[in-house]
Design a protein that fits this description.
alpha+beta; GTP Cyclohydrolase I, domain 2; two-stranded antiparallel sheet; 37% helix; GTP Cyclohydrolase I, Chain A, domain 1; 7 helices; elongated
Length: 196
């Protein structure tokens, strides 16, 4: 069985994934015939397929009839993804904003865009840039700001074992990047928890 995800060119072959998980468990010295592990390869294959499959959505936009010319920011959007280097999760929150041009985006779509790009093997830097690029391409806004904060289990559970540390990445475009006042306003709106 295969599951199509993200686009028609990319599919998850569940049978091959299940066999690969069984082979990995064997290579790690585990007894795949144990009653406790019998269904594990299938469960892991389905789990990865789910983690790598974003929900489809239509990017609903509306005319900016009122000429709204201030920042639109959705803050604290939860997300999770899989580190492409270790296949371990990283999770955190995204702050996504834009300065409207001729069109505005349905607010829930800001979270949908984050999910679209987080549901694949990722690195946080690329994920941040992809969200910003998507907004630039689909909205043609005057500027975009994206800040992601995440804890990476590949850093928390292994290697340096730095539990609780956050990685912060940003991508700013247009006026949000170039105008110091707008940049300051966007960054202030995305980190009020640090004040006081």
């Amino acid at each position: 069985m295969t599951v199509t995800y993200l686009d028609a060119r990319t599919v998850v072959d569940l049978r091959a994934a299940e066999q690969a998980v069984a082979d990995l468990l064997l290579a790690l010295g585990q007894d795949v015939d144990s009653e406790h592990l019998l269904e594990t390869p299938a469960r892991v294959a389905r789990s990865f397929a789910e983690l790598l499959t974003p929900s489809t959505f239509n990017p609903t936009t509306f005319p900016n009839d009122q000429g709204y010319d201030e920042l639109v920011v959705a803050r604290d959007i939860p997300f999770h993804s899989l580190c492409e280097h270790h296949l371990l999760p990283f999770r955190g929150i995204a702050h996504v904003g834009y300065l409207p041009g001729a069109r505005i985006l349905g607010l829930s779509k800001l979270a949908r865009v984050v999910e679209l790009f987080s549901r694949r093997l990722q690195v946080q830097e690329r994920l941040t840039q992809q969200v910003a690029d998507w907004l630039e391409q689909h909205l043609e806004p005057k500027g975009v700001g994206v800040v992601l904060e995440a804890e990476h289990l590949c850093m928390s559970l292994r290697g340096v074992r730095s539990t609780g540390s956050l990685t912060v990445t940003s991508s700013l475009t247009g006026i949000v990047r170039e105008d110091p006042r707008t940049r300051t306003e966007f960054l202030a709106l995305t980190r009020p928890w640090r004040q006081g």
